[in-house]
Amino acid sequence: MLEDKKDGWKAAIALAPAMIFLVVFMFFPLVNTTIMSFMEGFQFRANAGIFAISHRYQGIGFQEYINVLRDPIFLTALKNTMVMVVISVPISVILGLLVSVCLNNIKRLQNIFQTIFFLPYVTNTIALGMVFKVMFSTNNGLINLIVETFGGDKIAWLTDATTKGYWSALFVITCYTVWSGLAFKILVFLSGLQSIDKQYYEAARIDGASRARVFWKITVPLLSPMIAYITITSFIGAFKAYESVIAVFGRGSYIFGPAGDTNMWITVVGYVYKLLPSLMTPGNLSKASAGSVILLLIILAFTGIQLYVSKKRVHY
Amino acid sequence: MKKTLSTLVLVSVLSATALVGCGGNGGDDYNLPEVNIVSLDTLEATTTTIKFWHPFGSSTEAALQNVVADFETAYPYIDVELETKGGYDNLKQAVTLEIPTGNTPNVVLGYPDHFAEYLAGEVLVPLNDFIEAKDSEIGLDDFDDIYANYMVENQQFYEGYTFGLPFNKSTEVLTYNKTFFDAHNLEVPETWAEYRSVSEQILTIVEDVLNSATKIDAASGLDFSGVTLDTFYPASYDSAANMLITITRQWGGEYTSVGETFEKGKILFDNDKTKEAVQFFKDMYEDHLFATPATWEQDYASNVFVVLGTMMSVGSSAGVTYNVPSGDLFEVGVAKIPYYEADKAAVIQQGTNIAMLANGTDNQKLASWLLIKYLTSTEGNTQFAIDSGYLPVRKSGTESAAYQALMDSTGITNASDLVKIASKKVAPSYFEGSVKFTAFTDSAFIGSSDVRTVIGNVIPAVTEGEKTVDQAIAEAVAQLPNYK
């Protein structure tokens, strides 16, 4: 038994590989990034290694945080990220739950449908983005062909830099994000559904409970740990989104919108990523670090709120 | 969770406090790498391997490989590991990422604003000691043979220091559909006013063709059935950044300036002349006369030009062959870019320089220099200019028998080669005739590449983005607070 104190060293050995990786690739970069965010005008020096304090900077303080919070692109990124989180997470969680319940209730072809829904999970993000870009292309795109078939006008889904284009692009990004993230949610929900004891459903059937009542009174409460887990990880994933936007617009590594407004759908991580090509510009890396720390704090706050709420709502 | 969070916050605060205790490590006093030139005998005693990073795609890379192979034959004790980074931005990012790790290449191609960042990273080696070396096999005694205008950008950072030599140079040219122009007796525009006027004529002609049953232009025989009126624009400009910089200068405005040193630059493009210039092209766009490649969801207008979606386009002289359609669909003409007023005629000087980075032993530094010297020599550079779309960087290269034979184009029938030669002939013609152009490069400073990236969005923002010129300029300025 690992709980036995005498076997503590066994536990340590078992945990060591993971801990080493966490320290090297997670905790150290986190601390290094935090330090860097306070170093105003941070700049790399030749051969100085990876420790922030061995490089060039002009002072210590919160100036880079002020610069970031005054940067109109960061504010755009923050707004976009919040919009994506608020819209895509509830849609994807609810849709994932509904698809899982439907899949769990069908007997025939269940495996085939499971495989179909799981395909996006094993497909390359950029490849998926390219497919979406082609599907939503203004000229000859599949979606516009359907729109025209029903008598509508072509929509510039991903090439319109006006306010209308902002919302049409959000529609595409949301479709992409929800669809590509659905597979994992279905997998988790389905395994949760299959572990619910059938006796509860039998008892409800004998009592004559309606399907909706069974869903709300049995399925949702018993699945609540899974729902909480998926909701929290989905929020975190949505806050970190950037590759989905790059993939959907498909116009280059640092382009987050149509030609008329290449920052139209930039996200906070996209903002950080976009600062990296000019590493030697004084302060760019400290701005990127400050942006990362701000995002970390936002995610921590959201996760904290969700954990607090889930304590009352989740039935473990 | 709470403990982990508390620990993280504590570590961060403690680290930040510790930094205050350490005091600033900063300052703008960038150190230059030291140079110690070993003898050629030392170099010959053993095989030296050097890394050379470049941005080229397959066709130009093949031309570079040929010249590097010649170099390795001449210096069998030097092994060059050639590696493409797939584009200028990728190359700069790859180099800067390796600055803290010390794994930068020995030799690199780059623009002056890339070099400004390498200087700030203290890895850019001044070449003076090599150029002035007494050993004739090392020193550069024919330095004056290199075109002086190409050297300015390599000597701008610190007075008296040379940080690179020109290698692949080009400029911008106007490519046009010669078959269509000749068939309709259209004049190739020399001014932007003519550019607009010709565009209007083209649009009228193409509208008539597209409204006809056959959609075939009877005068030129060109089949426009693959073109639609809503996507046809008579004129285009490949690089929105180059365009803004060029028209700013041509209209008499200013783009950026550099302070006392390359460390601090200033943006100046928020001026009436720039706005007037941008408005001129916004009006053309709104009249369906002009587009940037983004209008067609393309990176380059050449993709549209070859399928008759546009009839003229300004682009790099080194890339004109991309405008040649398959199957000799039409003939391509090359001309000077238009100007606004004759006394302010200006054209951008493009292409990169070659430099040495500090990583490496003394042997590697000498081997790197010998490679730089060879690639910029009359022999090596002229061969590269002949094989690629770039221009020779030496007077002797331009005047060499091999280059002149290419310019004669006798016996050459391949359309791409002919267009490439026509483009090479246009470059020197900017400085001939009644209207003489100024070939310009803007001063590089740390962050000037960031400025270029931001202003590259101004033209698309006023065309595709439907923003006013004032809005687009104001948004660009707001994104560059450190350069006001």
Q: What does this 3D model show about the protein?
A:
The complex is a heterodimer of chains A (316) and B (484). With 316 residues, chain A is mainly alpha-helical. Chain A is 68% helix and 1% strand. Chain A contains twelve helices and two strands. In chain A, strands 1-2 form a two-stranded antiparallel sheet. Chain B is of the alpha/beta class and 484 residues long. Chain B has two domains: 185 residues, D-Maltodextrin-Binding Protein, domain 2 (3-Layer(aba) Sandwich); 249 residues, Periplasmic binding protein-like II (D-Maltodextrin-Binding Protein, domain 2). Chain B is built from 20 helices and twelve strands. In chain B, strand 1, helix 3 and strand 2 form a beta-alpha-beta unit. About 4% of the residues of chain B have low confidence. At the A-B interface, helix 1, strand 2 and helix 12 of A face helix 1, helix 4, helix 5 and helix 19 of B.
User: Helical amount among residues of chain B, as a percent range?
Assistant: 40-55%
Query: Using DSSP, what is the number of strands of chain B?
Result: 12
Give the proportion of residues in helices of chain A.
55-70%
| Beta fraction of chain A | under 5%
Largest interface: A-B, 52 and 57 residues
Could you state the order of secondary-structure elements of chain A as H and E? HEEHHHHHHHHHHH
| CATH architecture annotation name of the largest domain in chain A | Orthogonal Bundle
The named CATH superfamily of the largest domain in chain A: MetI-like
Can you summarize the main beta sheet of chain B?
10 strands, mixed
